[in-house]
Write a structure and sequence with these properties.
The complex is a heterodimer of chains A (713) and B (262).
Chain A (H helix, E strand, L loop, with lengths): L1 H9 L2 E5 L6 H15 L6 E5 L2 H20 L7 E5 L2 H4 L11 H12 L1 H5 L7 H8 L9 E2 L2 H11 L3 H8 L5 E5 L1 H4 L1 H8 L7 E4 L6 H8 L1 E3 L5 H6 L3 H12 L4 H7 L25 H19 L5 E3 L1 H12 L3 H5 L1 H12 L8 H15 L4 E6 L12 E6 L3 H10 L2 E6 L7 H6 L3 E6 L9 E8 L16 H17 L3 E6 L2 H14 L1 H8 L1 E4 L4 H16 L4 E6 L3 H5 L9 E5 L9 H14 L3 H17 L10 E6 L6 H4 L4 H4 L9 E2 H15 L15 H15 L1
Parallel strand pairs in A: 1-11, 1-12, 2-5, 2-6, 3-4, 3-5, 6-11, 13-18, 13-19, 14-16, 14-17, 15-16, 17-18
Antiparallel strand pairs in A: 7-10, 8-9, 9-10
Helix pairs in contact in A: 2-3, 12-21, 19-20, 23-24, 23-25, 23-32
Chain B lengths: L1 H7 L25 H11 L13 E8 L13 H19 L4 E8 L2 E4 L7 H8 L11 H13 L6 E8 L10 H10 L3 E6 L5 H10 L3 E3 L3 H9 L32
Classes of the chains: A alpha/beta (713), B alpha/beta (262).
Chain lengths: 713, 262
């Protein structure tokens, strides 16, 4: 807490690593709220999290915090809200039934776009209308609203929760939403542009912060649209009036329409040129012809049968040579397309999405000269013979999207449970932290036991390395490890594999060996699939089995939804087994391009980066099992590469500190006997007094304070 | 403070001061170490030595797990045999300390529960049943054994303290129905369930013991097993206030004027 305060006072950024399940969220929130209330400037807190369950958890913690503050006698006006996508907040009876977020968005826009509302007898969204009509009266009392509370409140008043939340944003003290609302240029412009400079930004669970940056700027085209013809047939009157408007550079009529984000600009706000649209795409026909030429060129490019990787500069040069398209008009593609769509008052925006993608691609290619790479892959995997060309436009530089955030806000706090190595992060994200700290757990008794199992009972080493993973001995040994640990673990056991493909192949092999039947004698088996609904059913049943004594095993993937969002506390996770090291798919050309970029610009070795990334994800999975001081669990790292010094030291400090030489380089039976003893010891009532070690009362806090003050003088 | 000093020196283990375990015990003025030994022993057994109402008349059902996990060899000769041997000395002690009680034995194996005996109050009869060597097999069933025990206990009158002691070795249970319903029924019948697990801490066992007011413990080794088992011998505090029963002890009356014939 003291380090956070130092960061806030110093108006700098900080990087904090805290072990999972140690009350990171609540300590961040309590200190920052107290800081806010203490100083009169009322700085806003923006808390960015990764998934919707995490946002909900944070909102609940905030609620408990505020009620605790009230019970302590502090009466304050405090408003805390959360914001997520339309899919989670919509209350319209039809639109909210859609399963995909994109479809919900499109339908919502169909109902709420300004020109549609101006038309007579068209069905409108009553909630949105209500909000628009009573916009002066719409206000919300102070308090903390979880997503469910907010939906109920808005529904009670007949307002649309999504737009109401956006409206109330400027008045809130604490805003909790996902990374995209701050990092993705498309969305950030609309939602976050009013946030003041001295707001405090917190990125929680930040290990994948580079990923949203990259996704936000990447484009991937796989099909081309034929919509240009339909556009040409549209009303020519409107086109004529639009032409006059553009020529005179009048924007007033457009500003009102700009409220509706049809297709927000994909580039960062600073990079849009403040000029008017160039002459050769002002007329709608010219623009349409221009787009058509561009699309034809892309089609010819896609017909190549070998892999091409090139920079934007070279792409633009080839484009100019072949089709005489200059880069400058390309920059305005996205804007021009959006204004055209607005003018033509096109209703069904779903159909124009591929065209929007192409326009966004054109704009990005011409605006950014460095930090991006174009990769053309004729086949999806290298073994296919049917051509399925995919053109990737990837962002290599993670700083592009996040740099504006660091520049704009004075205090940004980045935290996670697994940020090792701490020196690498500032380089990748391009910022200078004022405080860099890594914390360990303070415990009365060591509540988790990390074990590194490197070989099976027949002394054959086990690993998920690509060359040996399909070897029968390794498969059998992995099955044996799972079986033995299932025998000694009460209640729930969680397993993590490096990838879906590997998990499926090894489970099939186990089935052939008859091992699955043996597992079922001890525990039920549940498996995670790429489908979200199936996985949630599996999770529910898993929890039920753990609760009523039947016991269960959950097989999941290290980079999947389960490992990132779900907690396995107490009986739901008594053992976690990490099969192998969860490396990314190293043959992907996008990854290779990114590694090359990092090596050239930031002097980070590819090997280092890959292994850090893999072990970080592994530690993230393994940390799911400890969620509190009373919780305990066994962590098994089943790969011979973990025993090596270089891999072991890359694990977070709080895990390495509990590892001693006795827990390293074990075979299955040795590990099982250590595990048995661990469970028996942990089941005894806690002997030591938590006071003084993991709990401090008021006088101990004051003591520590005064002793530190003395130390400083 | 001493811990801080020790941790600050990051030496090798042989460089630190060798801890002599015999120094931990401190001698009395008379040279006896009885007090320190008693202090060490007291840590393990926390008994409630307060004045509480205890039920002296107890009906205890002992459920013995005969599933295949009881064939493991971490207790000698194997878990089941060790349990049965311990139980024979337990019976003698228990019936000695609680003369008004009786014991019923159940076994669970292959997913079912079966009665091994009837309500017996003589150690010899119980020892005869326990000396038969059973073969462990199949899966245990907590629910079936608790239901069977419950049926045996409902016929018992209200003033008697009803208890079930489960000696469980497995880490899972093979039940036909929802165990929570059984727990509710046990609670409403004021039956106290205590579980001693030989492997690790199971969530459902903890729930059962917490709901019914019993204790859940896990065994670490053979000596610990014996201690935990014998800890159940003193009667536990009553859950429900039962009516007092008049016992026929002679009363002494104070007579003011004694007229003696002698």
């Amino acid at each position: 807490m003291r380090d956070i305060k130092r960061t806030l006072d110093a108006q700098g950024h900080s990087l904090l690593e805290m072990p999972s399940g140690t009350g990171k969220t609540i300590s961040l929130l309590s200190l920052i709220v107290a800081y806010q209330m203490h100083y009169p400037e009322k700085r806003k807190l923006i808390y960015c999290s990764r998934t919707v369950p995490e946002i909900e958890k944070a909102l609940e913690e905030l609620k408990r915090l505020i009620s605790y503050r009230e019970s302590m006698g502090k009466k304050e006006q405090f408003l805390g809200i959360g914001l997520t996508s339309r899919k989670n907040l919509c209350v319209h009876p039809e639109v909210s039934k859609e399963k995909q977020g994109v479809v919900t968005d499109a339908k919502c826009r169909n109902l709420t776009a300004p020109w549609i509302r101006n038309q007579p007898d068209v069905e409108l969204c009553s909630f949105f209308e209500n909000l628009e009509n009573n916009s002066a009266a719409a206000s919300i009392q102070s308090g903390v609203y979880t997503l469910e509370d907010f939906k109920e409140y808005s529904k009670g008043n007949g307002f649309c929760p999504y737009y109401f939340a956006r409206k109330v944003l400027p008045y809130a003290n604490v805003i909790i939403y996902s990374y995209h609302y701050l990092l993705d240029p498309k969305v950030a412009e609309v939602i976050s542009k009013d946030l003041s400079k001295d707001s405090i930004v917190v990125f929680d669970e930040a290990i994948d912060i580079s990923k949203p940056n990259l996704d936000a700027s990447a484009r991937c085209l796989s099909e081309l649209s034929q919509k240009i013809e339909t556009m040409k047939q549209s009303n020519s009157e409107k086109l004529a009036s639009e032409y006059t408007r553009l020529v005179e550079g009048l924007r007033e009529a457009q500003i009102a329409r700009e409220e509706a984000e049809i297709m927000p600009s994909p580039v960062l706000p600073d990079d849009i040129l403040q000029e008017s649209v160039p002459g050769n795409i002002r007329r709608a026909e010219h623009f349409v012809a221009f787009l058509r030429r561009f699309v034809e060129y892309l089609k010819t490019r896609m017909r190549i049968f070998h892999v091409v990787a090139e920079t934007p500069v070279s792409f633009l040069r080839h484009l100019k040579l072949d089709t005489l398209i200059e880069p400058k008009p390309l920059k305005f593609c996205a804007e021009r397309l959006s204004s055209l769509i607005r003018t033509l008052e096109i209703n069904d925006l779903q159909d124009y999405r591929p065209l929007q993608k192409i326009a966004a691609f054109a704009t990005l290619v011409s605006t950014y000269q460095t930090g991006f790479m174009l990769i053309h892959e004729p086949f999806e995997n290298d073994l296919d013979t049917i051509p399925n060309p995919v053109l990737h436009f990837t962002c290599l530089d993670a700083t592009l999207a996040i740099k504006p955030v660091f520049d704009r806000f004075s205090s940004v706090i980045v935290t996670s449970g697994t940020l090792s190595p701490l020196e690498l992060y500032p380089k990748i994200l391009g910022f200078e932290p004022a405080v860099v700290q890594s914390y360990q757990m303070t415990l009365v008794r060591p509540c988790f036991l990390p074990l590194i199992v490197t070989r099976g009972s027949d002394q054959v080493t086990v690993s998920s390395k690509f060359e040996v993973r399909n070897d029968m001995a390794v498969v059998r040994n992995y099955g044996n490890i799972l079986l033995e640990f299932a025998k000694i673990t009460p209640d729930g056991l969680v397993c993590f594999f490096p990838s879906y493909l590997y998990m499926e192949s090894i489970v099939a092999a186990w089935n052939e060996l008859g091992m699955l039947q043996e597992f079922l004698n001890y525990k039920l088996i549940f498996i995670e699939t790429p489908d979200a609904a199936e996985t949630s059913i599996a999770l529910e049943s898993y929890r039920e089995a753990c609760d009523n004594g039947r016991g269960a095993i959950l097989l999941s993937v290290a980079r999947g939804k389960v490992s990132e969002g779900v907690d396995f506390d107490h009986q739901y996770g008594r053992t976690v087994i990490l099969f192998g090291i969860p490396y990314q798919y190293t043959e992907s050309r996008i990854l290779k391009a990114r590694l090359e970029y990092l090596r050239d610009n930031n002097q980070i070795r590819e090997n280092d980066f890959l292994s850090f990334d893999a072990i970080r994800h592994g530690a993230q999975c393994v940390g799911r099992v400890i969620r509190g001081k009373q919780d305990y669990g066994l962590m098994v790292f089943a790969d011979k590469r973990f025993a090596r010094q270089d891999k072991r030291t890359k694990l977070p400090k709080w895990i390495v500190s509990q590892m001693d030489d006795a827990g390293n380089n074990l075979s299955t039976d040795m590990a099982v006997s250590m595990g048995k003893k661990f469970f028996k010891d942990m089941a005894q009532p806690v002997a030591g007094n938590p006071m003084g070690i993991s709990l401090w009362n008021e006088e101990q806090v004051n003591q520590k304070n005064s002793s530190d003050v003395d130390m400083r003088h | 403070m001493e811990d801080d000093e020790e941790q600050k020196t990051n030496n090798y283990a042989w460089e630190e001061q060798y801890k002599r375990s015999w120094d931990v015990l401190k001698e009395d003025e008379n040279g006896s170490i009885l007090k320190s030994v008693m202090a060490l022993k007291k840590k393990k057994t926390n008994r409630i030595d307060m004045a509480v109402q205890r039920g002296i008349i107890r009906q205890l059902v002992i459920v013995i797990d005969c599933s295949r996990t009881m064939a493991e060899l971490d207790l000698r000769p194997n878990r089941l045999d060790h349990t049965l041997t311990l139980l024979s000395s337990y019976f003698t002690e228990f019936l000695d300390q609680n003369p008004l009680s009786s014991i019923l034995l159940l076994a669970t194996k292959d997913g079912l529960a079966e009665r091994l005996s009837d309500w017996l109050a003589s150690p010899a009869a119980l020892n005869k049943i326990v000396s038969v060597r059973y073969t462990p097999s199949g899966e245990p069933s907590l629910q079936n054994s608790l239901e069977l025990a419950r049926q045996a206990l409902i016929t018992v009158p209200n003033h008697v303290s009803r208890e079930i002691l489960v000696l469980y070795g497995a880490l899972n249970t093979c039940d036909p129905d929802d165990l929570n319903q059984t727990i509710d029924k046990l609670k409403s019948d004021s039956i106290r369930v205590s579980i001693i697990n030989l492997s690790a801490q199971m969530h459902i066992c903890e729930m059962i013991c917490k709901a019914t007011g019993g204790t859940f413990t896990v065994v670490q080794n053979q000596g610990h097993y014996r201690d935990l088992l014998f800890n159940t011998i003193p009667p536990p505090p009553l859950i429900t206030k039962s009516q007092m029963i008049q016992m026929g002890f002679p009363n002494t009356i104070q007579v003011k004027d004694i007229v003696c014939a002698w």
